[in-house]
Design goal:
Elements: H1 6-25, H2 36-50, H3 60-65, H4 69-108, E1 114-117, E2 122-125, H5 126-141, H6 145-158, H7 169-209, H8 215-234, H9 238-260
Antiparallel strand pairs: 1-2
Length: 262
């Protein structure tokens, strides 16, 4: 029979609480297409893998909080907040990539027909769905998800349970990361948007030269083929860009961890 002390059980519970909040917001793992049971099992597996390799004195904060219910509740709330902050920071990296596809899909005319995405439980254009599936495949093929799994472990090394310090500069950092998704979206969508801009300018010249031509009807297939051609030409460059992008996301996570740590 295994005998566990109350402090050990509560320490594992605090670790699970932080990990489950991070997993719930992580790119890919936190999507609605992933069943809740799978996310819970993943959180339990990560807790079981991380708990044994932590220092023996790691749960000192929990031991001190056992004497006071209010202190224990505050400790658990801190773990919840840490998990939400780290998960939200990681999620923004994927949101910028999806926003770029939405911008391009709108210009290419894909918004006239929408498809239902099971992972987001909402309708989106076909180009966004294609782009997101391609990014997910590259994301897994390059093992970029290891960045977030390592960040979970690093969070426990830098921020022991009950010893987090929330600094005022953390709000500034989160706002900067949130604003960065727009820069990411524009950076990724810029080549296609420029190409579509030139295609629109060419159609405008055709309209001036041949007023009888129905440029409005011609614009739909023209924008579709021009955008798709540029996108296919840029696909070989996408893995390298994603590696750089998620390396930047890892740097943001490290900055956030440093602002929360003691």
């Amino acid at each position: 029979m295994f005998a566990f002390e109350t402090s050990q059980i509560l320490t594992a519970a605090a670790i699970f609480l932080r990990i489950s909040c991070i997993v719930a917001l992580l790119p890919l793992f936190g999507d609605n297409s992933v069943p809740v049971r799978v996310r819970i099992l993943l959180s339990v597996a990560l807790t079981a893998g991380i708990y044994p390799i932590l220092p023996s004195a790691y749960g000192a904060g929990v031991s001190l909080a056992l004497k006071d219910v209010a202190a224990l509740s505050l400790l658990m709330m801190r773990e919840l907040l840490i998990g939400l902050v780290l998960g939200y920071t990681a999620k923004l990296a994927f949101d910028g990539v999806v926003m770029a596809a939405n911008m391009v899909g709108l210009q290419m005319g894909f918004n006239t027909v929408s498809v239902f995405m099971p992972d987001s439980e909402e309708q989106t254009n076909g180009f966004t769905a294609l782009h997101k599936m391609l990014v997910v495949l590259i994301f897994l093929a390059l093992n970029l998800h290891h960045i977030y799994i390592k960040s979970i472990y690093d969070s426990f090394n830098l921020i022991p349970i009950g010893q987090a310090v929330l600094r005022g500069s953390l709000n500034v950092q989160i706002l900067e990361v949130s604003a960065g998704i727009f820069a990411t979206a524009v950076q990724l969508a810029a080549p296609l948007l420029v190409g579509l801009l030139f295609a629109t300018a060419a159609l405008g010249l055709i309209n001036r030269a041949v007023p009888q031509a129905n440029v409005f009807v011609m614009s739909f297939p023209a924008n579709f083929f021009v955008g798709l051609f540029i996108y296919m030409a840029l696909i070989p460059l996408l893995p390298g860009w994603l590696e750089t992008h998620f390396a930047g996301s890892n740097q943001h996570l490290s900055t956030v961890l440093s602002l929360i740590s003691r």
